[in-house]
Amino acid sequence: MIPTMRCFVALDLSAELVERLRDAQGRLRDAIPEGPSMGWVSPTAMHLTLRYLGDDVDVGITPALERTLRRLGARRPAFSLHLRGVGAYPAPTTARVIWAGLDPTPALFELWDDLQADLDEIGFPPDRPTLTPHVTLGRVRTPHQGADLTGPLGEVGGQDFGPLSVESLALYRSTPTPTGPRDEVLARAQLQRHDAGRERSA
Questions:
Q1: What is residue 36's predicted lDDT score, i.e. its pLDDT?
Q2: What does the DSSP 8-state code read for residue 77?
Q3: What separation in angstroms does the CA of 2 have from each of 51, 52, 120, 121?
Q4: pTM beyond cutoff 0.70
Q5: 114 near 72, Cβ under 8 Å?
Q6: What is the predicted pLDDT for the residue at 144?
Q7: What share of the chain is helix, strand, coil (3-state, %, to 5)?
Q8: Distance between CA 136 and CA 39 in Å, rounded?
Q9: Chain-wide mean pLDDT for the chain?
Q10: Strand locations in the chain, DSSP E?
Q11: What is the rounded distance in angstroms from the CA atom of residue 139 to the CA atom of residue 96?
Q12: When comparing pLDDT for 147 and 7, which is higher?
């Protein structure tokens, strides 16, 4: 049997951002009434996922994925994001996912477009027409049990979590465990620093 893995490509969050997101989780826990069963994302599993590759990806393709990410990183510049706001999908009254959002940044969508094209070349065709960037904070396991989160989300929905300097992207392997997924970095690709061109010309 060919060994497989569950894996995805994501941007890491700073420790400061994770701490602020964890604080928002705590306030949501306190504000959400008993009823809907919630599954909260562990702080160690908070990422900004760019592309989920699947539950049964051939482990043998890992070197090709690493080369693809490194080539992408070599031609894409580092940039900044700003995380802001908390919401629910598809809506607070029918919530299934609670997320933290971010300000639209052209550089993020350009990176994602290139990632989709590069992955297509090694057998991972585009999986969606556009990126909906967010950080998942929790999932509603029983949305049919009155999961109206309008009030709780209103208490924390406008929070400004702060900026994030995006300097690399990572390939993660995710292994399910009884206490939640355990994420392991298989490869990391550095983006080009803003001063790289000046250093080369110096």
A1: 63
A2: B
A3: 23, 20, 22, 22
A4: yes
A5: yes
A6: 58
A7: 35, 35, 30
A8: 11
A9: 89
A10: 4-12, 38-40, 47-58, 79-89, 97-102, 135-140, 160-166, 168-175, 182-190
A11: 6
A12: 7
- CA quadruple 23, 132, 183, 9: dihedral, nearest 10: -140
| Per-residue H/E/C for 97-117 | EEEEEECCCHHHHHHHHHHHH
| pLDDT (tens digit per residue) in 24-63 | 999 998 888 665 678 899 999 999 999 999 999 999 999 9
Instruction: Determine the Cα–Cα distance for residues 63 and 73; give it in Å rounded to an integer.
Output: 15
Whether cis (ω within 30° of 0) applies to the bond prior to 43 is no
- Would you state the torsion angle of the CA atoms of residues 52, 83, 23, 154, taken in this order, to the nearest 10 degrees? -100
Which amino acid, 177? T
Determine the Cα–Cα distance for residues 102 and 164; give it in Å rounded to an integer: 10
pLDDT confidence of residue 146: 57
Residue whose entry in the numeric block shows the structure tokens 């009434």: 33
Distance separating alpha carbons of residues 133 and 87, to the nearest angstrom: 12
User: How far from 106 is each of 49, 72, 148, CA to CA, in Å?
Assistant: 16, 16, 33
pLDDT at 201: 40
Torsion of CA 103, 39, 14, 170, to 10 degrees: -90
Q: Which amino acid is at 68?
A: T
